[in-house]
Design goal:
Oligomer: single chain
Subcellular location: Membrane
Number of domains: 1
Strand order of the largest sheet: 1-2
Membrane topology: Multi-pass membrane protein
Structural class: mainly alpha
Distance between the termini: 28 Å
Main location: membrane
Number of strands: 2
Helix content: over 70%
Protein name: NFD4 C-terminal domain-containing protein
Strand content: under 5%
InterPro entries: MFS_trans_sf (IPR036259), NFD4_C (IPR056555)
Largest sheet: 2 strands, antiparallel
């Protein structure tokens, strides 16, 4: 009703997600569970909001291609952040053990990874805000069109 751009909801979820990563980085008792729940819920919000945002930004002509590019970020981000970044930082924190295996025990093993993820969320927050302000006119036009259509329908039904 207030023509709030969908990227604004993405921005809100990014800030909450950054808080979830910071909670995990603090490594307090139970913080891994709480942080994981918060981050998981924010991923759900982002997926639910990104799909209609893509149709509003780019239309429906090439929607299948655009949707698949959007969904590609999930495995790509998992590979880059969880596979490469987390692995490299874990190996840097780990100590060599018997048999040539690296082991790391404690909160410091992944703290830097969680903090980097929080920073990435803050950057995403800024980009979502930028997109929101750029799309405000689009949402105001959509709202005006819906209002005009509703007035036309109510006038038509009042005559009949």
């Amino acid at each position: 009703k207030s023509a709030t751009p969908r990227p604004m909801w993405n921005a809100a979820s990014q800030i909450v997600m950054a808080a979830g990563y910071i909670i995990m980085a603090m490594a307090l008792p139970g913080s891994l569970y709480i942080g994981s729940i918060v981050v998981g819920m924010c991923y759900g919000v982002r997926i639910a909001v990104s799909v209609p945002t893509a149709s509003e930004l780019f239309g429906l002509r090439y929607y299948g291609l655009i949707y698949n590019i959007l969904i590609l970020n999930l495995p790509l981000g998992s590979f880059l952040f969880s596979g490469l970044l987390a692995g490299i930082l874990y190996d840097r924190e780990a100590t060599s053990g018997a048999g040539g295996f690296n082991t790391c025990v404690g909160a410091h093993c992944y703290r830097l990874v969680f903090l980097i993820m929080a920073v990435a969320c803050v950057i995403g927050f800024g980009l979502d805000l930028l997109l929101s302000f750029r799309m405000k006119d689009v949402y105001l036009k959509i709202q005006a069109t819906k209002k005009a259509r509703a007035e036309k329908e109510s006038a038509f039904s009042a005559r009949n």
